[in-house]
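Input record (one chain):
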Amino acid sequence: MGASQTRYQELYHDLMGRTGFSVEQIKNLHYRFQQLSENEDTISRENLESIPGLAYNPIKRQIIEAFFDKRNQHQNESGSYSEIGFEQFVMVMSHFRPAASNMTDAEKEAVRKEKLRFLFNMHDTGHDGTITLQEYRKVVEELLSKSENMEEEVAKDIADAAMLEVASTNVPNMQPDEFYEGITFEHFEQMLKDLEMESRMYIRFLGVDTSTIHCGKSNS
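The corresponding structure, as predicted from the sequence alone:
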């Protein structure tokens, strides 16, 4: 028991240095991880699939995949995990941590860029550094899927029109016969330059308040 507790304390302090979370916040995340994994060492996609709060989310698939995307581990890796442990879980959750009030402007900008990269990765399902028309169309169709009387062809047209607008903004001198390969991260960053991130990058479905990383007793 003592050895196990010491091991966790060492892990908590290691994660504190890598994420900026406090030890108490990491303990709260560990509690939620154990709930989700049913006290196992790892979480699978099936564990997250069963969360009631995700059931009707139009981008449920992208949210779940974000937890298994190696690009979200603050490392230069690509690909996906089949399952993740507590350490990987915390590293993903760190993308939702608000910027600390004592951060410099440069540090806050780095945190913002990290959050944007996380969002970009959610849409770049091909892991090729570009959000293609097909990927963008899929997201738009899923977001519109809950709209009543929204036909698939209409959703496709909306996605295509939105991508055309993005192309005209990012490549203003593009000729009619040119092909727009897709949204790069630089384009994505420019598109969202005025977006306030702090109030938007949060998670509800895990029963976690990401403004404080306090875990409630929700079963969702």
